[in-house]
């Protein structure tokens, strides 16, 4: 039927498929993948863009459903649309799905709530099974969405032959190490509470990241805005020189996601640029890094993992930082003002 069925699982080194199995060929042969979502789910979609293009070599576009639904987009029956939603009830995402469907696209859903409106509106897909989000702001849904989307990309890449067998296997192997690494990242809690004490009265924050970590910078900024009401902006670090650099002075905390990957040397120079303007750098680095810790004011070490999987780990300290700042400012982290769990209008 027209609902989400089954789920993806890594079992004995192979991906076992549920409901999206019927659509694998369609996904493998897609001219492009269009991702639609809102808020945190949109950030998970941006991570997925990088992952799908890297692993599957299929062009990907990511759009805010809230924008897509009101314009006249070019969509056709060769498009595969992935709709991402924690609640499965977001009205903008639902309307965007209906629009894409009316133009003949195949809709794959990534939802958390079983039997939700979005799940029912899609042709097939996968549930994230992250459990209920107690608070309004999405946290574990983000990591669950990225995990599912990564497995989808691996499945397509395997069928397409766009990844070498050894790369495919090593990524699957690394995916299995994620729960342990997330547990380790959660042990950073006390350190983040201390950093939160220093910055709880800041009026603005800047978040920077490159590559797979750029959407993490956006998500870190969104989490801070949503639950602590501090103005925050996320930027690709390379874009800093095109504008946001003007904001940096000794009053500006700059969270830099600077884990070891192919763009590491570039992010080192971004940190230098911030320090040269006396910004306060809070750096998220890979365990054992020695270069950035020499320059940063505060250093948060996370376990190392391949760059494509780093968003799953790097977002944890940013969520904890927002949480502690919000609590210290007396904000209700579970029910932030003006926000609804499901935005149904
Ligand atoms: C999208 C979203 C959430 C945000 C807030 C408002 O929801 O923007 O990311 O935290 O709850 O809605 P969803 O479509 O993922 O349920």
Automatic annotation (TrEMBL):
Subcellular location as annotated: Cytoplasm
GO biological process, alphabetically ordered: amino sugar biosynthetic process; carbohydrate metabolic process; fructose 6-phosphate metabolic process; protein N-linked glycosylation; UDP-N-acetylglucosamine metabolic process
Name of the coding gene: glmS
GO cellular component, one term: cytosol
Main location group: cytoplasm
SIS domain segment(s): 23-162, 195-336
Protein name: Glutamine--fructose-6-phosphate aminotransferase [isomerizing]
Active site: 341 (for fru-6p isomerization activity)
